[in-house]
Amino acid sequence: MGAIMEKIGREALIGFVVGLIVGLIIGLPILGWWVFPVQWYDADPFDLRQSSQEAYISMLADSYTLNTNVALARQRVEGWDPKDLGQVIGQLQATASDGAQVQRLDNLAAALGVRAEVVPPEPAVQPTTASTLVRRLVPILGIVVAAALVIAGVMVGISLLRERRREEPAKPGRRPPPVRQAAKPEDAGEPLGRFVASYSL
Fold first, then answer.
1. How much is the average pLDDT of 117-128?
2. Which residue intervals make up region (Disordered) (predicted)?
């Protein structure tokens, strides 16, 4: 009974490991990235990328200039970190093309009680060939690593099977039936018959 439980335990462990590896290979890159990628919706403005945050604050400044409703303006930036909000307003002021836009942003910052921090614009970094090469190599390396994991899993499974076969005691086989000794010609006696063949051409 113990040998049966040990066999089931090993097979279950091998099945679990193989299932985990196959599940990771199929689940994450194939299903998670290609077939059913994550899609964001109902995001707050502070979770958006920088350009979308700037567009939102610019529209909020224009809206505040028209209606001067402080409560509504505060409701629209609720949950936004004041320091981050100040940096976005400062960035917009630094890149504003006219004085009226700067004034609208100043009025919004004063109404929200935020200090606009002018952040010097960072120089645009041109993508180098090395970075594009790395972007191309990452999926290839992922596939290679996944294949290596599958091969390693198969090799571990094969080695476990071989080890199990070595540990099993040899089963006694059936004995072959006893071979009859051929009778010696002198013990046989007189032959029962004699056949002679004749050929004619």
1. 62
2. 166-192
